[in-house]
Amino acid sequence: MTAIALAGLVHVYPEGTRALDGVDLEIPAGQRLAIIGQNGSGKTTLVRHLNGLLRPTEGRVLLDGRDIRSLRVAHLARQVGLVFQNPDRQIFAGRVRAEVAFGPRNMGVRGAELDRVVGDALTAVGLAGQADTNPYDLGYSRRKLLALASILAMRTPVVVLDEPTTGQDARGVARVQAIVAALTAEGRTVIAISHDMEFVAEQFPRVVVMRDGRIVDDGPPGAVFAPERVGLLASTGLVPPPAARIGARLGLGATPTEHALLAALRTHRR
Ligand SMILES: Nc1ncnc2c1ncn2[C@@H]1O[C@H](COP(=O)(O)OP(=O)(O)O)[C@@H](O)[C@H]1O
Ligand SMILES: [Mg+2]
């Protein structure tokens, strides 16, 4: 089943910027997809169409085959959870627990069940001990994790993450990775925008590359980061992850991850 389909999607902002210039994309249910591309290429504009925050100027957004224009806002909110790039645009409550409870409570979750989903989401992001803290007493990286928890608690079939690893140290990145893996294990669709090419290559079987409001490449990390495609990637202002660059230098072919690089080195030595 196709969770999301974009057809001929164009978005022109009121002052005239054509941020999306005809995007076609099909995302099967349960897929894990990364969107990469330089600043201003249209990534955030694209994902903001997935939960109805932005309306297409032209083209269509289909959710499970239905045009989202025909869906009620409340229904859409149950289907697609979007974690903003900037947590401070998302967070509004005075306590961590209240922030995370807001979404599920709005969806009718109450009592012990509400405590459970809030507790699970806070545990997943490592904030269980901060439930009574004011979000603004947390550092930036923890506010980002809080914004993520508040979407996780809504248990939407589609989860969209806009730059989830920005500002995270290695431990925070590992948490985000574990969450992405757990969402996939539950069969949910995960779409993440990221500048972190290592995170992308390690965690996402499909990578979509954007440039100037269009999709210019789409494939597994082994293809998108392959030596033959470096020129295309460079035209978007990006460089492949370190393992891919080392593999290319050594003439080992496509080695998007450390694991792939080590495997290629072992084979090569024989
Ligand atoms: N709210 C907005 N109003 C006007 N222009 C915008 C707005 N948001 C983004 N843009 C413009 O749209 C283009 C795409 O931006 P964006 O989708 O944020 O790209 P990315 O997420 O890839 O950095 C850029 O030229 C940006 O300046
Ligand atoms: Mg963006």
What class, by secondary structure content? Answer: alpha/beta
Tally of separate helices:
11
List unreliable stretches of 5+ residues: none
Following the backbone from N to C, one meets helices and strands in this order, namely EEEHEEHEHHHEHEHEEHHHH
Explain what you see.
The strands form 2 sheets. Strands 6-7-8-3-9-10 form a 6-stranded mixed sheet. Strands 2-1-4-5 form a 4-stranded antiparallel sheet, with no helix packed on it. It is 38% helix and 23% strand. The longest helix has 16 residues, at 170-185. The mean pLDDT is 95. The protein has helices at 43-47, 73-79, 96-106, 111-125, 140-152, 170-185, 197-203, 221-224, 230-234, 242-249, 258-269, and strands spanning 2-12, 18-28, 32-36, 58-63, 66-67, 80-83, 158-162, 189-193, 206-211, 214-219. It is globular and about 60 Å long. The protein starts with a strand and ends with a helix. It is an alpha/beta fold and 270 residues long. It is built from 11 helices and 10 strands. The structure holds adenosine-5'-diphosphate (ADP) and magnesium ion. Adenosine-5'-diphosphate (ADP) binds at residues 13, 15, 17, 19, 37, 39-45.
SSE topology sketch:
Layout: E1 2-12, E2 18-28, E3 32-36, H1 43-47, E4 58-63, E5 66-67, H2 73-79, E6 80-83, H3 96-106, H4 111-125, H5 140-152, E7 158-162, H6 170-185, E8 189-193, H7 197-203, E9 206-211, E10 214-219, H8 221-224, H9 230-234, H10 242-249, H11 258-269
Parallel strand pairs: 3-8, 3-9, 6-7, 7-8
Antiparallel strand pairs: 1-2, 1-4, 4-5, 9-10
Helix pairs in contact: 3-4, 3-5, 4-5, 10-11
The protein binds adenosine-5'-diphosphate (ADP) and magnesium ion (MG).
